[in-house]
Amino acid sequence: MTSLIQQDLAINLLIFVLATFLGIELIRHVSRLLHTPLMALTNAISSVSIIAALIVMSESDNRLILILVTIAVGLAFTNIVSGFMITERILRMFRRHQDKN
Questions:
Q1: SS percent in the chain: helix, strand, coil, step 5
Q2: Domain spans of the chain?
Q3: What average pLDDT does range 29-39 have in this prediction?
């Protein structure tokens, strides 16, 4: 039983590391014009993550899971708020000079 749990943990860790490197490479090669839609997409993904984390939190009695879910909700919320702030800043750069006043 223990080796099965360790095997699952190793596979999940490997998938996480590969997804991280793939994400970094994909974002690195995105043109500047696509950053605003990309930020909007990551905000949507983070909001789905918060909903899923709240569902897990409501169904769990394990203290470790509750701590991890609380951290995940905090990080996703920070990502959403900062994403909207950055998106607004980028959109302000594209407005005409007359529209800024």
A1: 90, 0, 10
A2: 1-30, 32-100
A3: 70
